[in-house]
Specification:
135 residues; mainly alpha; 5 helices
Length: 135
């Protein structure tokens, strides 16, 4: 079961990262909409974060350092969730930018719920791998 979870989680991050890397300007606009980060940091994230997502996605799909990749995914998802809750608390109407230009506008609870489910999946992978190491 953990291997299936790793593969699916990796596939989600591979697709998400690839779509963002394809249109970094659009992803930059999404990041700016959250009104959290200075423009130069948002720009850096827009251009480099997609490649981190692709890298950890590949690691999970190919089972290369899956525990480490799942930890990175969990941290990324935690950051995304903090940004979504912050936007919601400030009454901002933002596009999550989760899947690049293919992201339809949705209520903020939808990407928050999706990120929570993916976060639980990432933590499940970490937990299962830790248990395997102890055996």
């Amino acid at each position: 079961m953990a291997r299936i979870t790793e593969f699916l989680l990796g596939a989600v991050f591979l697709v998400s990262g690839a779509l963002k890397a394809w249109a970094p300007a659009h992803f930059y606009q999404s990041i700016e909409g959250f009104q959290i980060l200075p423009a130069f940091i948002a720009l850096g994230l827009a251009y480099y974060l997609p490649y981190l997502e692709i890298l950890v996605g590949l690691g999970l799909v190919a089972a290369i350092k899956p525990q480490e990749c799942a930890c990175v995914v969990a941290v990324l998802l935690g950051g995304f969730m903090v940004a979504l809750v912050s936007a919601w608390a400030r009454g901002l109407n933002v596009e999550c930018g989760c899947f690049g230009i293919s992201s339809p506008s949705a209520a903020l609870w939808e990407p928050l719920l999706r990120d929570a489910v993916l976060g639980v999946a990432a933590l499940h992978v970490v937990w299962k791998r830790l248990r395997e190491e102890r055996k």
